[in-house]
Amino acid sequence: MLRTQLYADPAGRFLHDVVLDSCRRFPQKTAIIDSSCGRRLTYGVYGDTVESLARGFVAAGVKPGDVIAIFLANSWEFCAAYHAATLAGALPTLLNPTYREREVRYQLENSGAVLLITDAPFIQDVNLSSLPNLGRVYTTRQHLSGADDFTNLLRPAPGTVPTPSEASDKVLAALPYSSGTTGLPKGVMLSHFNLVANVYQLVGPHCSAFAPDDVTLCFLPLYHIYGLNVVLNPALILGATLLLMPRFNVSQLLALLLTEGVTTMPTVPPALNALAQAAEAGQFPKQHRLHWVKSGAAPLAPELARRFTALTGVLVCQGYGMTEASPVTHVGYLEPELYKPESIGQPLAQTDCRVLDENDQEVAPGQRGELVMRGPQFMLGYWKDPGATAAVLRDGWYWSGDVVSRDDQDFYYVLDRRKEMIKYKGFPVAPAEVESVLLEHPAVRDCGVVGKADPAAGEIPCAFVVLREGVCRSGELEEELCLFVAERLTHYKQPREIRFIDAVPKTASGKILRRELRKALT
């Protein structure tokens, strides 16, 4: 029997309205602490900032349905720009701040962004010309020639923000990009209803230990749906305090645990492993207030969860989900009688799950099958890609591609991935995207990319490369290929190993036999 319940009815709720409700309820309480600049914003100040910024967007020419791109590290400006964009009726699309030029241009062009919120270090080496829709660029802290200052958007502006013309389940509230198993990343269309429903699922009774008096530390990137809708939105909707770090740093994190009284900290397995190592070295503070940690984005080894708890006294629960689900579908529990760190937990409230065999027949508990789900948190579809949408959304059910089993208590266990995705430190890497870049190099005739198990990263991308006739294998060429990819793709997509082979194993239809490549790694 499922334990979780909804926090409230999400029907008809718009994300910015729910956040602004908190700003009116807790005006003197600290909403956000930005460790990158030391600024602290109360809920009252944050609400005023969001409303001013939304009017600034409207005054700058933003219309309902326009796409606003946010290309920033974790910061108060990211948070305010995101909520203000939705209040202005716009659709925020969120860019990874480590992206290289080709990745930035692809997302801006594919999304049709009309306005970009960023900072000089992120775009000083990016050519933004010839993008058909991009009209305005604003930088937050460091000025760049040709860009406007973010503060201009916060100046008093006439007029009001538009009233939504459609219901909350039709109006999009986020357009994150998710790495697909083939080709380039796809925009995931998430509505206000999707996001609010998932927050209400997460913070509802008997689900997670989130509480209004929490100080929640967030080093998870806010551009990622995990940071956005498992950390930022729940914290502000509950009235908790959100402590932002621009990136994961062990020594800074350990200091913040004490100075800011951190109580909760969503994380990923590689970061948890680094913190466990710090605890083993005697560096984890004994006077901390941290009472639970949530792990997601990649499989959590049960041994790591138990080791971290033994070293620190902090309980760890695992969750499961995907960008297409806003993102959470399953959660684990902290109570001793229900604590199963090897499991991804039970489905959230109103999340229906089926485990199907290859003939699409439901299997019994303990049997393997593909996890198929439906619920209020699932996306409307992929941006401008009805074919990809139809491949995963069928009759209202989302086909995950993950092979699972469930026990007689309805706890689920991930056994395998049908998808080809590589998970590097929790970040998804599509082999096809890396392969397409390698194939641009004049020395490469063919290639295949797979994940290789790694104790620190979970998996690392490993490329098998077939060279053109007359090209000699060498360590220098291996370094050249790595640099070639590094100039074009962000750090987590770059191959950590390159192996030269005579031919890439393929099926008769030309599909890469990745299992054969993975065998070669053992």
Give the structural class.
alpha/beta
* Poorly predicted sequence stretches spanning 5 or more consecutive residues: none
Number of domains: 2
The largest pleated sheet is described as:
5 strands, parallel
Query: What's the CATH C level of the largest domain?
Result: Alpha Beta
State mean pLDDT (0 to 100 scale). 93
What do we call the CATH topology of the largest domain? Rossmann fold
What count of helical segments does DSSP give? 14
CATH superfamily of the largest domain: ANL, N-terminal domain
Known CATH architecture of the largest domain: 3-Layer(aba) Sandwich
Strand content: 15-25%
Estimate percent helicity: 25-40%
Q: Roughly how many Å apart are the termini?
A: 41 Å
Report on the architecture of this protein:
By secondary structure, the protein is an alpha/beta fold. The protein folds into two domains: 15-398, Rossmann fold, CATH 3.40.50; 422-519, ANL, C-terminal domain (GMP Synthetase, Chain A, domain 3). 28% of the residues lie in helices and 25% in strands. It has 14 helices and 28 strands. The chain has a five-stranded parallel beta sheet with strand order 4-3-5-6-7, sandwiched between helices. Strand 15 and strand 16 form a beta hairpin. Helix 1 crosses helix 3 (76-87). It is globular, with a radius of gyration of 23 Å. The mean pLDDT is 93.
In short:
This protein has 522 residues and is α/β, with parallel strands linked by helices. The protein contains 14 helices and 28 strands. The chain is globular and about 65 Å long.
